[in-house]
Amino acid sequence: MALSFLPRRRFLSAIAAIATIAPVVLTGAGWLRLGRWLSVPARAGLAGLLPNPAVARAIGLSYLAQAPGEADRSALTAQVFGGAEETGSASGIRRTLAAKRDRDFAEGDTVVLDGWIVARTEARFCALIALS
Amino acid sequence: MYANLRDYENGAVLDTDICIMGAGAAGITMAREFARANREALLIESGDFEPEEETLALNEGKVVGEYYPPLQTARLRYFGGTTNHWGGNCRPFDPIDFEKRDWVPYSGWPITRSDLESFYIRATEVVEVEPYEFDAETWRPGLKGLLEYDRTKFADRLWHYSPPTRFGERYREDLDRAKSVRVLLNANVVDVVLNDAASAVIGFKLKALGGKEATVRARTYVLAGGGIENPRVMLMSDGVMPMGIGNGNDLVGRFFQEHACPLLAYGVPPPDLECFRPYYQGTRTRIDIGEAVLRIHLGPTEALQRERRLRSGTIAMGFGNHRAKGFLAFREARQAVRERDLGQLGESLLTMARDLDGLVEGMYFRLTDKQAVWFTSNVEQEPNPLSRVTLDRERDALGCPQAVLDWRLTAGDKAAVRTIMRLLAEELSRSRIARVRIDDWLLDESLEWKDLVGEYHHIGTTRMSDDPKSGVVDRDCKVNGIANLYVAGSSVFSTSGYANPTMTIVALALRLADHLNSSTSLRAEEAKAQVK
């Protein structure tokens, strides 16, 4: 299915804005303050997908459109953060996400979102943001 | 020594030991070897030293099947042949390219990479890419680094850039000085004459534009006219074998393969551009063994190919502004305006109109200075007997049937490219080298190939096999069933591999020359039978 020009631009912007990682703050649920914690991994890492919450939500919604059965915050949280050393510290979360992301790519557990090859952990993480 | 058929008496007969049709990479390479061995040879070339419109037009033909540029654009018909527009990319085939693989139909050569190794080494001198070293790791000290990724999955596939060697210019003097080799220009082979038993060639009939005719009588004959011309000449020489020479099993012209290299994907470039440089442009590099201009593509390792049943292939990366057709046409239109070329301007405007999306995206990239890394493929095509060269009813200026090219790609070909691209995208992402977006046309099986481009590699149309039922020539490049007819060039390749064919063409030509220099060919008395 050919996608329209505009969504492609948005994804491209999201992926491309790796030099300027804006803080992503989840309010309401009071979970996580992702912000600059995620800017330290390599520029093309998970943080590159999250220049701003709106784009992260768009990526998350795109994933949930493909996998509607995963639209469950508890299940997604367990999948994304399960097995983390600590869920409260930024460095712990970062290590967990980075390791899962790397494993996803190594094992081919990826999804295609608007043509972009995205690790499933990344997509689920954005789906969590979309559901918040 | 050079001569011109136009200067000969009409009906002349030329006697020689070995006659080669075609002064391209293969023909000139062989002629030089025969000169070194003081072996008498006649090298026949359709054109002159410079291109002439009337002669180039002899390459016209029809294209059906997949999109392909006009055949007279894809091939050149003057001394030096298609090396006159060769890009200079040199790399030997990989060992796995020669193997029978049960996941690639019709794969398997009757020779191995080891059989060609010594000839590849010699070929580096011919195409001017010494030293013979294609391991990227060896060249690392001369580079600012190599990309770091999982080398159990993918590998750096190194190309050397030839200057590029224009064989006609580079070796013209060599052949002029050669005592035992003559070059005959403006001479076209219009018929390969067989004896009544169809077991041996007894002559080439030649014709020049303007009408002069002649006959060559040799002990051994070699067709080195390229992957379209070789089968064309064999098919049209139907005086004794109505289906064409060497075509008892209906294989001449079949299995036409090319290297499709459309744009596959874009990506966000890596942070360290210096390290990335040899992956997107030729990079001059010096180490203790010598200096070379190198470029690296990424391809699945042999282990990954076997594990995942992948084709042999590489993905090339480029870096810069957008490559969409619409945007490239915009740049061509600007150039056309500067040069007041209304014809080109019209074409460019049409292309822009047909690809507005690409034009707008390209403008976006340019205006925002967002340079992307782009990806194209060189993946071996599945040998497909339905992809073929045949003869047309249309005749050229010499009265010979023109060629019809029916290039066919399969769903498997597209899937092969998609699989390799996706695996590479995953590894580049994992390694934090680049994030990749694959184009819709590649991801969606129902969509056609987009902006399909070939590389003018005409492969497989007189393929090599130990079994005459699956090949036109044997492992020595001799036409099955014909005692003294050989074929040189990429038409004998059994599979296409991913590497540009020129280096392998030259290696095989050196091997064939050695074979002919050392073997006893058909006795002259048997070959010089009466010619009609």
Verbal overview:
The complex is a heterodimer of chains A (132) and B (532). With 132 residues, chain A is mainly α. Chain A contains 5 helices and 2 strands, in the order ααααββα. In chain A, strands 1-2 form a two-stranded antiparallel ribbon. In chain A, strand 1 and strand 2 (116-119) form a beta hairpin. Residues 1-9 and 12-49 of chain A have low confidence and may be disordered. Chain B has 532 residues and is an alpha/beta fold. In chain B, 29% of the residues lie in helices and 22% in strands. Chain B is built from 17 helices and 21 strands. In chain B, strands 1-8-4-3-12-21 form a 6-stranded parallel β-sheet, covered by helices on one side. Chain B starts with a strand and ends in a 5-residue tail after the last helix. Classes of the chains: A mainly alpha (132), B alpha/beta (532). The interface between A and B is medium-sized, with 29 and 30 residues.
What is the number of beta strands of chain B? Answer: 21
Strand content of chain A: 5-15%
Mean pLDDT of chain B: 92
Low-pLDDT regions of chain A: 1-9, 12-49
- Please state how the strands of the largest beta sheet of chain A are arranged side by side: 1-2
Number of helices of chain B: 17
The count of strands of chain A amounts to 2
- Measured as a percent range, the helix fraction of chain B is 25-40%
Largest interface: chains, residues each: A-B, 29 and 30 residues
Round the mean pLDDT of chain A to the nearest integer and report it. Answer: 67
Order of helices and strands of chain A: HHHHEEH
Uncertain stretches of 5 or more adjacent residues of chain B: 521-527
- Helix-strand makeup class of chain A: mainly alpha
Structural class of chain B: alpha/beta
Biggest pleated-sheet summary of chain B: 6 strands, parallel
Return Rg of chain B in Å: 24 Å
Counting DSSP H or I runs of 4 or more residues, the number of helices of chain A is 5
